[in-house]
Amino acid sequence: MAFRDERRPFSFYLLATGFALYVLFLYGPTITITVLSFQGPDGGLTFPMNGTSTHWFANLFERQAVGDFEGSIRRSLILGLMVMVLTVTISIAAGLAYRKGFRGETPLFYLSMASLIIPSILVSLGIGLMFQLIGLHPTWYGSALGAQLTWTLPFGLLIMFAVFNRFNPSYEEAGRDLGATAWQNLRHVVLPIIAPSVFGVALFGFTLSYDEFPRTLMTGGTFNTLPLEIMAMTTSVTTPVLYALGTVTTGISLTVIIVCLGTAFVIQRRRAARGSDAGRGV
Fold it and tell me: Whole-model pTM?
């Protein structure tokens, strides 16, 4: 009787070790910052911790001698939501337009993708100078919005192009056969099918905007967004309140991700349930 050697090869342990180091390198700093943010009132910026408390989270939203935490978080959230809505809307519209084709579609595609290879700081500098030349002051809700769209839109467009390239047009044909208008087809047929991908585009739009620093550096205007505020604080704030801010912003990002993924999961489950009911003739 032959016995099979079930010992794992050396390459398995090598890959497992490499993956463990990668995860530690990726999440170790975030975990460290989260732990240090719960220091006591007399805590410092390094280990060992001096007690545990939520003092620095409460201090985060009090009036500070340096830094505008509450205002910067609010501006970043509003800007992120604006970027998310515009990215989703423009990406869906572009995906639908490219399905039918139009004159100049190829140059427009490469032009939109070019912003991914241009250094972000140069995009920020160029947009900031352009606003000044035309007599407008750069603002976080104006010039920064445009600068961040040059970063989020290409990702949204690529996702929508991939979705519509494998979209079966027979679903729309069936809707038209049943008397649906173009708008009804879009609302009741196309959008429910591509909804998970739409949530993916929304997730990309918000998260890329929320932590974008270089494209906002020259376009944010007088008031800082959260990444700009954090960068300014690193040279002046010497208390764990900086870690508390990092923990809060990480929590916001994770909440957005969980909500988007959860919504997409619920939509998928409901669609599967409707398909199962239709198959049973219910």
Answer: 0.80
